[in-house]
Amino acid sequence: MAEDIRAVNLGTRTRQRVPAAQFPDAGRVARVVERERPPDAVDVLLVNPPAPDGGIWIRSQHRVGRKSRENMLWPQVSLAQLAALLVMDYKVEIVDAIAERMSWKKFEALLRAKMPKYYVTHLTAPTLQNDMYGVFLAKAIGARTIAFGTHVTPLPRESMLPFPALDFVLRGEPEMTLRELLDTLEGRAATDPRIVKLLKDTGTQVDKERSTQEDKATGDLSSIKGLVWRKDGEVVINADRPFIPNLDDLPIPLHNMLPLDKYRGPMMKGAYSFVVPSRGCTAGCIFCIKHVSYQWSVRLRSPENIVQELRELRKLGIRYVQMYADLFTASREQVVGLCKLMIEEKLDIKWMCNSRVDYVDEEMLRLMAQAGCWMITWGIESGNAEILKRAHKGTDPTKAARALAWARKAGIKNWGYFIIGLPGETEETIQETIAFSKKLPLDIALFHIAAPYPGTPFFFEVVENGWFRPGTRWEEVDMERSTVLDYPQLSAERLEYWQKRAFREWAFRPRPLLTFLQSMNSWEGLKSAFSIATQHFGWVAE
Fold this sequence. Notes:
Layout: E1 5-6, E2 9-10, E3 13-14, E4 18-19, H1 26-35, E5 44-48, E6 57-58, E7 66-67, H2 77-84, E8 92-96, H3 104-114, E9 118-122, H4 128-140, E10 144-148, H5 156-160, E11 168-170, H6 175-186, H7 193-201, H8 208-218, E12 227-231, E13 234-237, E14 272-275, E15 278-279, H9 290-294, E16 299-300, H10 303-315, E17 320-323, H11 332-345, E18 350-355, H12 362-370, E19 373-381, H13 385-390, H14 397-410, E20 413-420, H15 427-439, E21 444-449, H16 457-465, H17 492-507, H18 510-519, H19 523-537
Parallel strand pairs: 5-8, 5-9, 9-10, 10-11, 14-17, 17-18, 18-19, 19-20, 20-21
Antiparallel strand pairs: 1-4, 2-3, 6-7, 11-12, 12-13, 15-16
């Protein structure tokens, strides 16, 4: 009987011995799970996991997570891009649990139906433990788990150590790291010329067929740039992966794999999707998360390549598009070329974009309007020049007023974003920002509280100066719900008070009220307006 028992050691303590039959071998269980995969099983499941509270949350490859006050469902174009790089060699599906309003119970049932070999997911700071629950569920059914995003990129070791269910992290630009990882684990080599070129351009070994076989045999993944993995109980951070030099080399994202009919945005009469015309931003704002993934470089797609994607969206019935760039107007030449091509081809697509107030001119804005641009979101941030200077924004209130006036004259709506609580903020400077917002020709304005996201200069400044609210958790680093900041001259409670007051003062005036009334022409517009208002006033919006 002695040979039929085993001891389970925990440190220096030994648990009660139990019969082996009651404590089956974990490796054997894993092999059974792999052998019993159902007919609908997939190789790779690309996941935007359920929300912590059943609400609408925003996640993307480029940004942090946040709860959507605008009732805006973001198309998961980053997952569609990953799918486009895998479908020729793997069975791939996308699950957007936010768009589908999927509960965790339904999500778990879906996981068991799909039994993915690889589970690939967004991870964001405000939803970290929630997102890790999906990782845990996937690991429990035998999947290898992979995460990417703006939280794990600057904090890969801190993300993996507390969560042993997470097998891999893709730092920075995830596409080619994921492709190389899967090929290595599967012991295969890409044969599509486009994929082969992308892998080579981003630092993959040329003789990958030989190396994948060797790496699989030895369990050594150290040659995969951009990867974070576990080896002998330790977290290993590999060398950085170079950026994709030419974004035109990427295949067009597979928008048809997304639940396009579910996506909605404020003041849009129908479904929409994202198009990513560029990656990166040259500006130096200390609070911006974009630089964590893409540094300060800017890479552009050609106008012809972008229009090719727009044609595909038209075939899918999409008439509204958001040009989802870190800075859409980073290149005047690209914007002008794109607009002229859209006008020439008569695409008849309504689109919105973002911009900085110092990266536009009157002529370009007129051309954008002719090409179908109907709204621009502007990062205005503050009405105080010194606050902007300290945040390395590189603009001033005068430029903001001029740019928005040009856009209004061209017939483009203005959506302004403001940040309350940047370094140096006082109640007096907040009141300057509120007063400034009322003078601008804005159709929508949102006031956020500054959030020190990991990896940003603002984050390190907050750590160095001890400005974090005591007991702060990652889930609280969210500019939408509350604040983690506690300045000596401006407490967290006062920041939250001024955020709500700023919106009330801006909104309770004739023109903003008219905009909200006009948005009520559609049910989606009404929900968006109600959601924005109620969350600013502290009510609960269904």
